[in-house]
Amino acid sequence: MPKDSHGATSVIGEQILWQATVNGRPVELTTTTDRSLLDVLRDELGLTGAKRGCDIGTCGSCTVILNGKAQMSCIVPISRAQGGVIETVEGLSRNGALHPLQHAFIDGHGFQCGICTPGFLMSAKALLDKHPNPTDKQIHQAIHKNICRCTGYNQLVESVKLAAGQLAVDDLDKSAYRSARVVAPVPGTPDVPSRKLSIIGKSQPRIESRSRVDGSAKYTADIHITGTLHAVTVRATRASADIRAVQTERARAIPGVVRILTHADIPGENAYGKLIRDQLVFAVDRVRYFGEPIALVIAESAAAARQGAEAVAIEYRDRPGVFDPELAMEAGAPRVHEKGNILSKYHIEKGDVDSAWQNCAHVIERKYTTHPQDHAPMEPEAAVACWDEADGKLVVISPGQSVFFDRLNICRALGIPKEDVRCIQPAIGAAYGKREDIYAQIHVALGTLITGRPVRIEYTREETMHATTKRTQQRTTIKGGCDAQGRLIAYEAKVVGDSGAYASWSANIMRKAGVLVSGPYSIPNVRVDSYAVYTNNPMTGATRGFGAAETAFCSESFIDELAVAAGIDPVEFRRINALRPGMKSATDFQLPGPLPVRETIEEAVKDGEWTAPLAPHPVDPVRYRRGRGVATIWYGIGFGSGIQDTPTCIAELHDDGTCTIRIGTVDYGNGSNTTFAMLAAETLGSKVKAIHVINADSAETPNCGSTVATKQTYTTGNAVIAACTKLRADATSIAAEILHVDASRIEASDGIYRASGNGSRTLTLADIARRFREFGKPKRREGIFAAGKMTTPLDPETGLGKAWFPMAYGTQIADITVDTRTGKITVDRIVAAQYVGRALNPRSVRGQIVGGISMGIGYALTEDVKLVDGICQNLNFDKYKLMRVNDAPPVKVIAVEQDESTGPFGAIGIGEPPTLGPAPAIANALYNAIGVRIRDLPLTPEKIKAALSMMA
């Protein structure tokens, strides 16, 4: 049966006159009974605050209040809302004043990307309208149908309690966050001069907060352009096959279908990709994974486009496929590409591993496997293209992670110069690495080029789960040995990663996996081989943790197993072997700067009560067993390995004393725009509200590289400071001349420049800015940071060299309860001590850490796309199980702070590293609880029950 663009049956319903009261105003319109309340709110009334996340009533992003009850509007037939009283997020504020609940979400950092925030606000408002002083249980019950992928729920729940008056702003974070300043000097590191800081180190709300809580933020699917055509991709229904024919006659005959595009319509190159341009805009004569694009149907309506896509007939000749990366490496395996299935190999050879085994008192060898996790951002993929008649540019709007990478590939496919294409990133509903790869951007651009009209694509949840990238599944074998005192002597690993059908970032992912698989430990003899391998599975790509989340599970499980074999406490084993200043990493590089691995262990142990016995379960201590586990991780910030990376910032001072900074970065919920505004304000001696950030627009901003690799705080942050430092120096020299003092006496904060020792003599930054030209000073300054020079290419033979810098470190301790009857794991709490350099915005830092941990818990326990012969089985949130508020443990965050002298005000980055710890910490806690060691993620109840049965 035909389906519309959202996956619902496209039956034309009976026409009705619909009447309701929406946000206090009467509404009357004509619609049809096949429409949902969400359809009418978004498409007819323009109330796009309610978001389309799943279309089956499982995620809560579309929640509104209907007749006093929170309802998921995507599953409410419009006839059921007849005569109803409806409240949406747009109706919360009155006369421009935000509702107290909206203020609470801003103050409490109760959101990150913001795509799910309207749904949570409406669920919370329905609760508070009925129960102004709710219990924790009532709060959890009220929002448990809403999914947030970003926050990990801790701060979200606190925001509701803040609105209820159960918490004060000053009480936020007190019991859940602390800073641990490490003051011990680091050999060889220049001292960071003490700074009197007025902004850095103090919690700041997100600069775009209002738009995220009032529903005014426009995500790609919210953008409507008059005369837009709708497009649907025709995708392969085979994982490995030859294309014998593509028949479009029936599809062309469907009313409303305007054009059907195939590879023959591409005026430029039918190729794109990250490291290797091995992907095709449209398949030509062969498909290599289920869901590969073959054609694009463009129509006047979404329903017609969907019907047209279903009418396109593809004739296949099946080929044998290969779906296991280890089997794909065998000589007789079916070839995914003619050049062979091994995409890349990375080798480390440090010391003499073969001879070192004889010096080991304990040697073990283990194999671990990890699975493909979907990024599952709440915003499904979408893209819009149109012509800007004013300047003649083809404009593409989409949630990507680099507008410049998108533009490059669009230009190549269309065969037009980059000056003729403008890529813009609007509000974006998270990314986690998924948005690095092209999905629909070239398709909409091609559609607009050929038809001359705006073209939009909006994926269903099922389509995005089928067709977009996944976390790399790995097969890892580790052999390691230590002496009788527990000191690591030798370590050998083979890591095989599944690239899927095309390369994306797989070679870099598996190089990072190879570098980091040995952990943050001093090991004199190391041998590692890591491979990226083509299969007929969906393509894998950058995912939060980029190869390291997978290897951390393996290496930290192995460290625990070796500690058990040596009869040494797991924490003590890590203390003994942790890298310290002056020691060398697995790539034989003596890491400069802070190296607080042991400090993260000690801080986690303090709050994690490592030596304290766990209390037995109060209900049934025999059935419910408790355990505690630990994991210590490291993660390389930035591209590493000498890859060129020179982010640039342009800062412009205005006559009113405000400053605009232009940067090519993408803020997809990570808070980078706020971070940059804080850095600019602190450097200029201004205020955060006086900084305007323009970002992610290929026509307006310089290229800062992809917003990936936890790099933007460090790399682009340094570029922001470099640009603003020049403006500050000029402003200081002007102020000194006007005040007739030496420039060294000028101080600045809150937009006021004064001469020290004479507080009555002041100038505003606006006073100074208006006189820049008089003093011959430019108001626009450029700052560049050569991040690529912080590392070097690795030796092609030995793999040795300066792989990544700076490095992030962390230790997490997980307490869990295991139901031995069902096999279900409940995470009771996590203590996370993460090295951050300096916490620039503490409440935001806490949010990033808790959010990363929540994704790591999902990876450990429930999230699995379940590939069967290359086809994803779990396609929506009814089966692909994301964490909900009732599953979210309390997380105690310890920000381990020691200034990195090369970082902006001492900071590094923190977005990805917290994701690495939960899976190994939980797996180690599982062993501690019931003596079961599972080496295959995820740690499902079925696997635990099977292991318990074998033990019995």
What's this, in brief?
The protein is about 25% helix and about 25% strand.
Structure write-up:
With 952 residues, the protein is of the alpha+beta class. It contains 23 helices and 34 strands. The strands form eight sheets. It has a seven-stranded mixed beta sheet, with helices on both faces. Helix 11 links the parallel strand 16 (393-397) and strand 17 (421-424). Helix 3 crosses helix 4 and helix 15 (548-566) packs parallel to helix 22. It is globular, with a radius of gyration of 28 Å.
Layout of helices and strands, plus pairs?
Layout: E1 15-22, E2 25-32, H1 37-44, E3 63-66, E4 69-72, E5 85-87, H2 100-107, H3 117-130, H4 136-143, H5 154-163, E6 177-181, H6 209-213, E7 229-235, E8 241-247, H7 249-252, E9 257-261, E10 286-287, E11 293-299, H8 302-311, E12 313-318, H9 325-328, E13 342-350, H10 353-356, E14 362-369, E15 382-388, E16 393-397, H11 403-414, E17 421-424, H12 441-451, E18 455-458, H13 461-467, E19 474-482, E20 488-500, H14 506-516, E21 525-534, H15 548-566, H16 570-577, H17 597-608, E22 624-636, E23 648-653, E24 659-663, H18 672-684, E25 691-695, H19 715-739, E26 746-749, E27 752-755, E28 758-764, H20 765-769, E29 780-784, E30 807-819, E31 825-837, H21 842-861, E32 867-868, E33 871-872, E34 891-897, H22 918-930, H23 941-951
Parallel strand pairs: 1-5, 6-34, 7-18, 16-17, 20-21, 24-25, 31-34
Antiparallel strand pairs: 1-2, 3-4, 3-5, 7-11, 8-10, 8-12, 9-11, 13-21, 14-19, 15-16, 15-18, 19-20, 22-30, 23-24, 23-29, 26-27, 27-28, 30-31, 32-33
Helix pairs in contact: 2-5, 3-4, 11-12, 14-15, 15-22, 18-19, 21-22
